[in-house]
Each structure stands twice: as C-alpha cells, then as structure tokens.
Amino acid sequence: MAGADMHHRTAEFRKLYAKVLGQLKAFIGTQNDVVVLTASGTGAMEAAVSNLTSPGDAVLVLTAGKFGERWAGLAKAFGCKVDGVSAPYGKTFDLAEVQRALGAHVRAVFVQATETSTGVRHDVGAIGEMLRGSETLLIVDAITGLGTTEFDVDGAGVDVIIGGSQKALMIPPGLAYCAVSERAWAKMETSKQPRYYFDLRKERKAAAKGEASYTPSVALIAAMGAALDYIAGVGGGDVAEGRKQLVANAELCAAMTRAAVKAIGLEPFAPQSPAAAVTAVKAPEGMSSTEIVKALQAEFGATVSDGQGEMKGELFRIAHLGYFDYMDTIALIGALEQVMRQVRPERRAELGEGLSAAQQEYARRAAQQRSAATQV
Amino acid sequence: MAGADMHHRTAEFRKLYAKVLGQLKAFIGTQNDVVVLTASGTGAMEAAVSNLTSPGDAVLVLTAGKFGERWAGLAKAFGCKVDGVSAPYGKTFDLAEVQRALGAHVRAVFVQATETSTGVRHDVGAIGEMLRGSETLLIVDAITGLGTTEFDVDGAGVDVIIGGSQKALMIPPGLAYCAVSERAWAKMETSKQPRYYFDLRKERKAAAKGEASYTPSVALIAAMGAALDYIAGVGGGDVAEGRKQLVANAELCAAMTRAAVKAIGLEPFAPQSPAAAVTAVKAPEGMSSTEIVKALQAEFGATVSDGQGEMKGELFRIAHLGYFDYMDTIALIGALEQVMRQVRPERRAELGEGLSAAQQEYARRAAQQRSAATQV
Questions:
Q1: Which residues in chain A are contacts of B351 at CB distance < 8 A?
Q2: B7: left (phi over 0), alpha (psi -120 to 50) or beta
Q3: Strand A81-86 to A58-63 pairing
Q4: In this complex, do B355 and A355 lie within 8 Å of one another by their Cβ atoms?
Q5: Which domains does chain B have, with CATH numbers?
Q6: How far is CA B251 from CA A155, B224, B365, in A?
Q7: Residues A213-249 pLDDT 10s
Q8: Minimum CA–CA partner of A357 in chain B
C-alpha cells in the first residue's frame, strides 16, 4: 500500500490504474471492460442491479444462502419482481428447476459462483448454457469465486461478474470490481433505475482515461496492483496463469481439508458441490460450532468463521482464499484435531488421523501432477 | 513502524523511548539500566568488549559455534589475551573445564545463552554460580536467548546481557540493546579501549533523558515499542508475564519439533542441551541439508536455515522465535514429512508419523499445564 500518498489526478496514478484494470481483465479471464468501485462487494452487486434493471422488471434470483438472499433483497429494494429458485443451505440448485423458471420475460438472473455462507459451489457454466441465445442477462457475484474457481467467464456468457479486493486478491476490504459484457453496456442505456455513485457507464468512461469518477481508494488500488503483480509472478509473469495456480492451490487446500475433516469424524456441510473458497463443516450433534471457533482462536490463534445468521452455532467455515496454502491447511487441521479432542473427549479420533488423511490427499494430488507433467 | 516520521528530538520521541526502555527492562527481567544501540547485535557485542576490557586483559571466551567464535574474534581485535573453553559443534561446555579456566586474573567471561549456529543452550545460571563472589564480569549474548529461554538475569549475576530487534522481538534487524549491571557501569570508567559510537556511558546518560546519543532508528524503535506492547498484551498487560509465555511457546514448539524430527527418522544435532530458539537437525547420511532447505522453500515456501560456514550441508535449523507458534510448527513438520518422503523415497517414514509425535507432545504438555493450573 505504498502508493497511499499518490494523488489520483496524476499521470502516475493513471498509469497505475490502467495497469491494474488490464491485470484485472486477465485475472477474471475476460475480454470485457472492467471497472473498479471504491466500495465493498455489495456496492458492486448494487451497481449490477441499478444499472441493468428497471422498476417492475422480472428477475430470477438463485438463492442457497446469505449471499443469494442479498441479491433478492437488492432486487426488491430496486422494485424488481423477484422470482426465486432456492436450494436448502448446504446444497446447490436443481438445474431442472432453474430451467423451468427461465423465459423471455426474465430480464436477468442473479447468482453466486460460490455461496460463501455455506461453502457451496454453483454451476455457473450450466446456467450460462441455459441462457445461450436468450436476451436474459447473467449476473454473477464471484466475490469469493474469483481466484478459487476456474470457469470460462466469456464462454459462459456472463454479463456482469463481480469481485472484491479482500478475497483472492488478499488486500484489505474497500474495493470491488466488475467486468461487463458489450450487450450489458448497451442495455444499461435503457435501464431506468436511479444511480450516481455507482453509475457504471461513467466509471467506464473515466477508466478509459485511466481515471476513476470519484476520489478512489488510491492506497488500495496500489495494493491491488501489488497483489496482481504477485499473482503474475506466481504465473511466471502471466496473471491468468497465476490465477490458475491460485485456483489449483485453493482446490488442493479444500480437498486436504475435506479429507481431514472426515477422518476426524466431522461432516462437511456441503458434500455434494463443495466450493474451493471455503469448506463448511457441521458442528457435531449436541454441540455448538461457536465453541470450536472460539477454542481454535483462543488456543491456536487460528481463525475460522462461525455460521452466519441462523447458521451460527450450526457450522464453521475454513477459508482457502489467496495466500492460504498447504502450510496453513496442515496447521489448521492439527489445531482442529487438538480442539476436537478437548471438546469431545468421549468421541476423540486418534491424533494424527486428520493430518495423515490430508497428507495422503496432498501426496496423491502431487503424484497426479507429476504424472500429468511427464505425459506432456 | 508507524512512527517513521517522528523526529527524535521531540517530546513525542522521548516519551516513546522512555517507555520502550522500561519495557525492555521487564522483557529482559532485570533491574539494571538498559540502552538501545542503532546497530545489529554484533555492535552491542563490540560495545561490551570495548567498554569493559582494556588491551592485554585476560578474558575467557566460551565457544561452541559461530557466535562463540565471534566473541573470540572481537576480544582479539581489541587486544585482549583470549583464553577459550570450547565444546564441539552441537554440544555445550564441560562445566568442570570452565571452572578450571576461571580465576582472579580473568577480567570477563563471554558466552552465548543460545548458540544459534548449532541450536545448543548453554547453562548461564551455572556459569553465574561459578563467578559468584568474584570480580570477573559475566557478559552474555542473548540475541536469540532472550524471549526463548527463561533465566534469572540479575540472580545469575549477568553484568551485560545483549538482545537484538529481529529475534524474539520480531521486528526488522537494525537495533540492539543491552542491560548493564551497576558494577559493570563502574568498571567502565577504568576501561582503556577506544570507543565513541558505542560508548555505553554516553548512551546511558542520554537514555536517562529519553534520548539517544546519535540519530536513532526511530521507525525501528517505534516498531520495538509496538512489539513490546504486543508482548505485554499476551501477558495480560505485563511484559514479563508475556515474555514467560513467549518462552513457554518456544519451549513447546521446540519439543514438538524434536519429537517429530525423531519420528521422521532424522537426528537432532544437539540432543544433550537443545535450545528452544532453534532446533538443528542433521542431514541424513549421504545427503546435503541444502537440498532439504531448498525443497522446503520451493514446494512449501517454508523457511529453515542451512548450517553456517563449514556446517553448510551438514545440518538445517528450524527457528522457534517470536510469533512462530503451534500452527507454524505443525505446518513445517507436515512439509518436512513430504520433503523427506520425496528426497529419500527408499527410507520414507509413514506420512503423519512426525505430525502424530508432535501432536502427542503438544497434548502431553497441555495436559501437564492444565494439571498444574488445577493444583494451584
């Protein structure tokens, strides 16, 4: 964040910002124009609604957790007629049900790539396939999905994809970004929602000159540039390649965690369609996840998240975002073994069983990778 | 390091510096006056020699590794007649031999609390006991010993104890500090070595006014204050209590590491008197430790140190300083298991054996602590 003192109306900032915008395109994996907003991810979610709908528009919101519900709340706040397909917490949608809810009347579909509150991955590609050839817009909150899930944004026909600064980009919260398709830019012209700070067309014009419409969070943009440089470095100078490795790392950590959790005798909350961004784990019967979260923090300084809202106490969530790597994963599993032994002494797994399962998963994947590399 | 812009001739700096000096006394566990030097630890080692000896003085240097040898080099550079008691790398001194080398003619004994190059702990208390009632000064390099070893500095009669900023205080290198006994301050008046930048009497006078003799590394002093505040926080507001917990953490991590290393089939380099600051591990026969160090870095981003000087290739060293905790220890052991399996496939231990041994050691110590707490 060394750029904190840079003024945003200078050639220096314009150069930085243009660089960051280009890197973000590569990070997202899109040819579409990208804009950055000084806001949290929810601000960009609002921008998608306010720039691409009009009051009374029929929209379809796919909800399977707290973040899906946020889409519904936003669309309702902007006067849309909200139809919903929902899945129980811990599951993804029934795609046939989604198909039945679609139609020419639907202005836009809103979905998460990853439902962070339950650790579920949704099949954005399949939903894009259903929409192919239609006029319905596909709007994806990928705040935790970008950098943890590999999918073809443009190939799937995603019209707006949204990311945040504090997730896979590993910098403090305070910036959101989105990539917008050409047809969505066109449709924005006819949208009748009030918008000013989040007017994406204005941001796009400013971005073309390397500027932001309003005073941006310069320090965070500098930090974002540094994070993207880091990701490029991981990819041998190529941001897209670095992102692929970030995703592979998240997938690896998530697989190790799932294997360990089962070996410890715990149950993953989303066994069918688990996200790589976060692994949600059910609290054992008769005990609260809050107790596990607190014990991990108190004894080991290990941060996992409790369930959100009414899921508090029911599950805890282990993140695999950004820098979180093999070392962190092994350490957390070790701590979890110790905590589970202490809080459930009557049902204790042998110490080391979760760790061994994670080690086996790592070794198996590493061997696969080496074998794949040899075959190439 | 947020104090980088503070000028050092201001009330603000004086307040900070006075606070840091007080906290350092508590961190060291001494009633003696403390001064801070803008230099690395070796600068403070030189200050002890240049302020407390005269050319031709007989001094006894206890050497068991690279840092002991540095004492000998310094004393020789200042024209002292250096007698030495040495132990082979990986061992501590024969105390009977030390006793035989002492006598009224010896101006000062120079020793390390922890010989970082080999991971050996020396018994400072026992050496202090031998010197009780004598005029011989006891000068201890505790650059890695402070915050990793609990010993009674004043009770052992330590005349000069030296620490550095980058070790247990967890901030960048660039500052050293030392506590000096009343009799050492007095003896300084008759010492005939040239000294200016490292004149400890001048620093003591300046420190009494909350100042430094020369422009100090203000940003590092601010960082040191923050680190000491953190340590105080660990101790419920008490720096000394925080230090005790830091030491207990280092002892725990070292014990877990030793248990794991043996379970993986490796051999600790200093089995007799292992330091808590660092665990040195022998490279298996027929292979270089450099290979293990590189593989840990390349595959896991895990940093361990190779042997120094002629020990390069012979051993690697795992640090347990400062923030390094249970989580880091477990993670490193996991990585070490994977690396050893890859580099020595023919002699591989089962994955998880080292981790399980570490887990057992943790559980054993945690149970002991709980039992001790119950008895109190």
A1: 356, 359-360, 363
A2: beta
A3: parallel
A4: yes
A5: 2-234 (3.40.640.10), 240-375 (3.90.1150.10)
A6: 55, 23, 10
A7: 887 888 889 989 999 999 999 999 999 999 999 999 9
A8: B352
